[in-house]
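Give me the fold.
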Amino acid sequence: MSQQTKWSQFGTLITVFFFWEFVAASNGIFIPFCKTHFNLDQFQSQLIDTSFYGAYFFGSLLLYLFSTISGVDILNRIGYKNGIILGLSMSVIGAVSLAFIAS
């Protein structure tokens, strides 16, 4: 059985990942700002990048452990679209809170 590709949904997903990568690429600009604003040495400034990508690792690990222990696949229960929306919302909350801390 052949299914037709829903190009509008595909375009939306590409746009979402573009903005998500924009946030990730902004670390390259944000780290030197934090280094000068908070008087950080090189090791401390690289901890910002490590914590950013470490959050993906630990978040996915916690999701896996919770799903395994509870026997419920959380992502299938809430849906992929809502999962992406939840992830982007968490990114926005983190970025806004960092903006308030830096100011």
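The two ends are 56 Å apart (CA to CA).
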